[in-house]
Design brief:
By secondary structure, the chain is mostly helical. The protein is about 65% helix and about 5% strand. The chain starts with a helix and ends with a helix.
């Protein structure tokens, strides 16, 4: 029910947008008959799941990443409904709810891919099955997890606390580095579009879409905005991207041929050398690596300073893998001839991102770990010197309170001023715990919690063992009782007495 509801709601949204475009635009792009219109809506629904399709001239694979947000939100709500309707025992069982949604949803996507096939358009059924399953599993599982956390009052920070320390630190560092790269790419794209805004306005006027068509054109551009951001990230990394065969847009130079009339494409620089201002974007990967490296070590500091750069570089490698995946999703084909190859090279982007972000993250992680260990050493030294300093201050205060020297004369005994005897030692002044003491206290709390958990598990095992032993004794007692009952019954049968009666003669019966 959750999978069917999400798929039906998504189809309703896409069909509404398709009918609006059919009414506002000429009917030729959408088809004259209602059956062709519905097939186009189903094809648009598959495109929202990042499913490519084959046309007569080639393959259409340059799909908008932003359109995936529609099925993702619907599946997220379906996952929350599923968690409210069904009983899921523990948080670690959320994958069962995700699988329960993903299986039927993938089947629905595959069926619609078969129904949307025509003589000119053929969606990829294997990709429909895979992408439908992946999107439903991630979005539906996230919705179910969120609902369970809300019902049980579990915070996100507490959920991250269940992960191992090193895995959590790498996840935080990778997320921070990737987010910094995407933010830099967004700023770069917006700056380029602002500089070339007159060309974008002119392209929009040339298309003359009208009110409804203009709204749909704006929605399409918003759907392609994540693709543009990923392209800008690839430009900042260095490899750049292509806009067709024998083209390149990179910091080393720009060579772009004729392009379709699309307002967003006005952000592309002109042929020739890359704009000097855009070269400042080359610092974005190193800044992202520094942020990722610092957060990686802040989440899980290393006692051994040599291990910090290693984990920082691992953070860069994982960020490079994410960038390669994003580059693969953002690019694709746009028909035949010279537009068959649009987008970045995923392996080049991943390799360069791993090296640039990894190197910056390694250096930043080493510096952050050195600073942290230095603060820890200073805190420990200050904590060790605090009692001695307190004793010295107390002694100096006592000496300053002694009375002055007593004059000595003839016949008088020599008087030596003595310090007043302290009956009780002064209580140490309260002070705020240092960072080292807080760290030690947290470690003790964790160890105490682990010991309590181990003791609780041991008590449970002992209770189960005692229960099993008690049940075994009861079974043996019942069996023994049955055997004694059978034996007693047999003895009673063997001890039965039999009487013998004799019939006397008539003359004997009358005798006294």
């Amino acid at each position: 029910m959750a999978a069917a509801t999400a798929a039906g709601s998504g189809l309703a949204v896409i069909v509404t947008l398709t009918i609006a475009g059919w009414v506002a635009a000429p009917h030729a792009p959408f088809g004259e008959e209602i059956v062709e219109l519905l097939q186009g809506a189903v094809l648009a629904w598959l495109v929202s799941h990042h499913v490519s399709f084959t046309i007569q001239d080639g393959q259409f694979g340059l799909l908008p990443i932003g359109l995936v947000l529609i099925p993702a939100l619907l599946l997220y709500r379906s996952g929350r409904w599923l968690a409210r309707s069904c009983e899921i025992g523990r948080l670690r069982h959320v994958h069962r709810a995700a699988l329960a949604i993903a299986g039927p949803y993938a089947a629905i996507a595959g069926t619609l891919a078969l129904l949307a096939r025509t003589d000119t358009v053929e969606p990829s059924m294997p990709r429909a099955l895979v992408m439908g399953f992946v999107i439903a599993f991630l979005s539906g599982g996230l919705g179910a997890l969120r609902q369970m956390m809300r019902e049980r009052g579990v915070a996100v920070r507490a959920l991250l606390g269940l992960m191992p320390g090193r895995a959590r630190s790498l996840l935080v560092g990778m997320g921070a580095a990737t987010g910094s790269l995407l933010l830099g790419g967004l700023l770069l794209f917006l700056a380029a579009l602002a500089v070339n805004l007159p060309e974008a306005v002119e392209a929009t006027r040339a298309l003359a879409p009208g009110v409804v068509g203009g709204a749909l054109l704006l929605l399409v551009q918003l759907a392609y905005l994540p693709n543009a951001v990923v392209f800008a990230v690839c430009y900042a990394l260095g490899p750049g991207f292509t806009m067709g065969a024998a083209t390149v847009v990179a910091p080393t130079g720009v060579s772009v041929g004729p392009l379709p009339m699309f307002p967003m494409l006005a952000a592309l620089p002109a042929d020739g050398a890359a704009p000097v201002v855009s070269l400042a974007a080359l610092a974005v990967p190193f800044a992202a690596g520094a942020v990722g490296g610092v957060l990686t070590q802040r989440s899980a500091p290393d006692v051994v300073s040599e291990a910090a750069p290693l984990w920082g570089f691992v953070c860069g490698v994982t960020t490079g893998m994410v960038c390669a995946a994003l580059g693969e999703l953002a690019g694709g084909s746009l028909g035949a001839e010279r537009l068959t190859d649009i987008g970045p090279s995923s392996w080049q982007v991943g390799l360069v991102a791993a090296l640039e972000v990894g190197a910056a993250a390694a250096i930043a992680a080493w510096i952050a770990n050195w600073w942290y260990t230095r603060r820890m050493r200073l805190a420990v030294a200050a904590a060790a010197e605090a009692p001695e300093r307190a004793k010295d201050e107390k002694a100096g205060k006592a000496e300053s309170e002694l009375p002055g020297p007593v004059p000595v004369g003839e016949g008088l005994a020599t008087v030596t001023p003595l310090r007043p005897r302290e009956d009780e030692e002064d209580e140490p002044e309260e002070r705020a715990p240092s960072e080292a003491e807080r760290f030690t206290a947290r470690q003790r709390v964790r160890e105490r919690a682990k010991r309590e958990k181990r003791a609780e598990r041991a008590a449970r095992r002992e209770a189960r063992a005692e229960l099993r032993a008690q049940r075994g004794e009861e079974r043996r007692a019942r069996k023994a009782e049955k055997r004694r009952g059978r034996r007693r019954h047999g003895d009673e049968e063997s001890e039965e007495l039999y009487g013998i009666s004799y019939e006397a003669a008539p003359e004997e019966a009358d005798a006294p």
